[in-house]
Design brief:
Blueprint: E1 2-4, E2 10-12, H1 23-39, E3 44-49, H2 55-67, E4 80-85, H3 92-101, E5 108-110, H4 115-123, E6 128-132, H5 139-146, H6 157-172, E7 175-180, H7 189-198, H8 215-226, E8 232-238, H9 243-249, E9 251-252, E10 258-259, E11 262-264, H10 266-271, E12 281-293, E13 300-302, H11 303-316, H12 318-336, H13 339-342, E14 345-350, H14 353-370, E15 377-380, E16 384-386, E17 393-395, H15 396-399, H16 414-419, E18 425-428, E19 441-447, H17 452-459, E20 473-476, H18 481-492, H19 504-515, H20 521-531, H21 542-558, H22 563-583, H23 592-604, E21 623-636, E22 663-665, H24 666-676, H25 683-698, H26 700-708, H27 711-728, H28 734-742, H29 744-766, H30 771-777
Length: 778
């Protein structure tokens, strides 16, 4: 177990604990073992267990049971169990859980280095191998290296012969492949490479071991490697199965459709008290703002692109960032920090890396201004982020300076440092939204559009149950309660497939693509003759030769005069490639032309111009944010009710997916956007508040208070004065004054903004005057 060493680091201590499985874990493992013992190798099983329901332990117990499973005739069912995670970095938690069950040397091997390590584990007969999916395409090179080849691109004959011998040996063994977080990536080329390395072929395939293989033999082998392999059984675990996943790993149920082998639903896990309901305390806010066109004239812009850029402008605007930062920090201080004996933590989910950076800067500034010492944020994002406004570059370690050591916190160290008492809030941009297990997470602030599976996976970070933790809280600035309901509904109980895939659509698509005459079939065949050559016959010049057969199709595509026809062809080809990769794992297609067009199309697509509108929309100089406020819209539980099921779909429909982006005047776009976000301030309201600000900035007492105090003390000192100024001018706008005086929530939102505007205006004047000069001007 890893614990805090009290010096800003972590240390490992060893202790043993007896863990008893929950009923659903015991039931699942026993049923899988019993059924697979009867089915033998070559069968798939889908397990739908809710996030937070102990999936890691279920996988660990299953892997050890399968590794020692024998038939009634005392023959091993599986020679090797391979546990696969789709994350590029091996899941340390999963690896440790599997290690801890069996301490004997050589039983479990974690592949955390390279493909050579994986190749060695497959050759030496390791019982349980834990690895990532991404290493399998490089196993053949790993075998050459393990065989002693110094240069894997030009290996010596002895190494080639030894590697081939090992390759044959690997394909003769039987494997149980346990997939952690099974989803659509299992239908891609990397998954096919796994089957190609480990698979012994299908029962319909021929064992072709003779030498002198040509490209057609290579084509047939790849086609065969896409289908179910007679020596591979997949045990796929997921909380949110998509239609693809159900069709790939499910088994036919009473309805005639594919379904999961074992289910432990979100509803059942909540009712049994195993996880918390993340939808019980859900609050949504809505942004009300008004954008103002600043440029003269009314330039025309692409409508959709301008809408997107204007929305981005709003979400990244300093005023919006500052106001939401204040709401989150103050909410955390008053409502979250005291929970779990002061150890409760929160996550802020941002919409982009730049937004995460600006939130981090805003959080740090606000916390420093207020003098808070018991709240510290960390930020998580990939790579370098350059702020286009300031030109400054930011990295995750560079922004996370350890409060204990004073050194940057590395990406590997971040989860452990966040777990410590030194940090309370984690701001994330496309990181830690899946697979992150931190039971102290109690609250989530969402400033990002969440849809479907992503919404379920992200919000489920809060559902871990520990003593003293009550229902988690979500404050959502972007999504509406109805959107979240629709996202959770298909996965709350048993996830069902709406409609099985239609294999005939692939033939229809191929016919339509052939009719377009963008490629000639002779070019596809010539490309295939190179692409499907056996590995020992491939050479560095092959890439240039394949490109030569792709180029005529690229030229014909560019020669199509009508933009809509170019869009249509490209989208149909993209759809064909996507659907073939999926359906070929379910249906044993015997037509080699389908496989040839798939590979040709996969390489052709990157060369086809997308036809996007490359005009750059910069709204910062042409649009201003006139006013902005947030209003709470919904607070309470989002109840997922029993009733008609909502189904998941498989990807067999193909359309262009694009609509032309018509141009529209900037003023019209701004008007549409303002209307969409429901602005309720009038121009009269804005002018009234501006007059209050101007009056306050000229008041001697207000100026003296601003010059003598920090912002928080200034707010306390002028609150009554602002109320007096408003009452004095009540006749000019009694509606807004009445609301300000009577509605504490409205006043709580409006006053801090107004006070800060006044404070900063007076302080800005102070930079150009001495304090006495400024007061004497009044």
């Amino acid at each position: 177990e890893t614990v805090d060493d009290g010096k800003g680091g972590r240390m490992k201590v060893t202790k043993e604990t007896m863990i008893f499985p929950r009923y659903h874990q015991l039931d699942c493992v026993r049923k899988l073992v019993r059924t697979s013992q009867g089915d033998a190798a070559g069968t798939n099983y889908l397990v739908q267990h809710s996030a937070g329901s102990g999936k890691t332990n279920s996988i660990s117990w299953l892997s050890h049971r399968l590794s020692s499973l024998h038939s009634d005739a005392d023959e091993k069912i599986y020679d090797c169990v391979i546990v696969i995670t789709d994350r590029k970095v091996l899941d340390r938690q999963l690896q440790d859980a599997i290690y801890q069950i069996e301490h004997a040397e050589g039983v479990v091997k974690a592949i955390d280095d390279n493909a050579t390590q994986l190749a060695e584990a497959l050759v030496d007969g390791t019982k349980i191998v834990v690895t990532t999916l991404q290493k399998f395409p490089f196993v053949l090179r790993g075998l050459l290296k393990a065989a002693g080849a110094e240069d894997v691109d030009n290996p010596d004959p002895e190494s080639v012969e030894k590697a081939k011998e090992w390759e044959k040996k690997i394909a003769t063994r039987k494997y149980a492949i346990i997939v952690d977080e099974a989803h659509s990536s299992q239908s891609g080329e990397t998954a096919r490479e796994l089957k190609s390395i480990l698979g012994a072929g299908t029962d319909n395939g021929e064992d072709d071991t003779e030498s002198g293989l040509d490209w057609e033999d290579g084509l047939n082998r790849i086609m065969e490697s896409r289908g179910r392999q007679k020596n591979l059984s997949f045990f796929a675990f997921t909380a949110t199965p998509k239609g693809k996943t159900i069709e790939l790993f499910g088994r036919k149920g009473p309805s005639g459709k594919q379904e999961a082998f074992h289910i432990y639903s979100m509803r059942q896990a909540i009712e049994e008290g195993f996880i918390l309901d993340v939808l019980q305390k859900y609050t949504t806010y809505k942004s009300y703002y008004n954008l103002l066109k600043k440029v003269e004239g009314d330039p025309e812009m692409p409508h959709k692109k301008a809408i997107k850029q204007l929305t981005k402008f709003l979400y990244l605007h300093p005023h919006a960032i500052e106001q939401k930062s204040e709401i989150m920090i103050e909410h955390f201080r008053h409502h979250v920090r005291p929970k779990l004996a002061g150890r409760a933590k929160a996550m802020v989910v941002t919409g982009s890396r730049l937004q995460a950076v600006r939130y981090m800067l805003s959080f740090q500034q606000y916390i420093a201004e207020k003098g808070y010492t018991n709240i510290r944020p960390l930020v998580a994002f990939s790579g370098l982020v350059k702020d286009p406004d300031s030109g400054a570059e930011y990295s995750e370690p560079g922004m996370n300076i350890d409060v204990v050591t004073g050194r940057p916190i590395s990406e590997i160290q971040l989860p452990e440092r966040f777990e410590s008492d030194d940090y309370q809030i984690l701001l994330v941009a496309n990181k830690y939204q899946t697979g992150f297990d931190q039971p102290l997470l109690h609250t989530m602030y969402v400033d990002k559009r969440l849809d479907g599976v992503q919404a379920v996976q992200t919000l489920s970070r809060l559902n871990r149950m520990i003593p003293g933790k009550d229902a988690p809280f979500v404050l959502d600035f972007v999504n509406e309660a109805e959107d979240i309901y629709r996202a959770f509904k298909p996965y709350y109980d048993k996830t069902e497939l709406g409609e099985a895939s239609d294999p005939s659509k692939l033939e229809t698509l191929k016919h339509e693509l052939d009719q377009a005459q963008v490629y000639h079939w002779s070019e596809v065949e010539a490309f295939a003759a190179i692409f499907y050559k056996p590995p020992e016959r491939q050479n560095p010049a092959d890439h240039a030769h394949m490109q030569r057969y792709l180029q005529p199709a690229v030229d014909r595509f560019r020669g199509i005069a009508e933009e809509e026809k170019r869009f249509e062809f490209r989208d149909k080809l993209s759809g064909y490639v996507r659907i073939y990769a999926f359906l070929s794992q379910i249906i044993p297609y015997a037509d080699p032309e389908l496989e040839m067009l798939y590979s040709f199309g996969r390489f052709l697509l990157p060369h086809l111009p997308i036809g996007r509108d490359m005009s750059v929309i910069r709204v910062g100089d042409e649009v201003g944010l006139q006013y902005y406020r947030l209003e709470r819209i919904f607070t309470g539980p989002i109840e997922i009710k029993d009733g008609e099921a909502e189904y998941v779909k498989s990807p067999t429909d193909v359309g262009t997916g694009k609509a032309r982006d018509e141009k529209a005047p900037l003023s019209e776009i701004i008007e549409i956007l303002n209307e969409r976000f429901g602005t309720r301030f009038t121009e009269e309201d804005r002018l009234f508040l501006q007059q209050i600000k101007e009056k306050a900035c000229k008041d001697r007492q207000v100026i003296q208070t601003a010059l003598a105090n920090p912002l928080d003390k200034f707010e306390l000192g002028i609150r009554k004065l602002i109320e007096e100024f408003m009452i004095e001018r009540m006749g000019e706008n009694d509606k807004i004054v009445t609301r300000y005086m009577a509605d504490r929530e409205f006043q709580g939102a409006a006053f801090p903004i107004l006070a800060k505007e006044i404070f900063e205006t007076i302080r800005a004047k102070q930079d150009n005057h001495s304090g006495s000069d400024l007061v004497s001007e009044i």
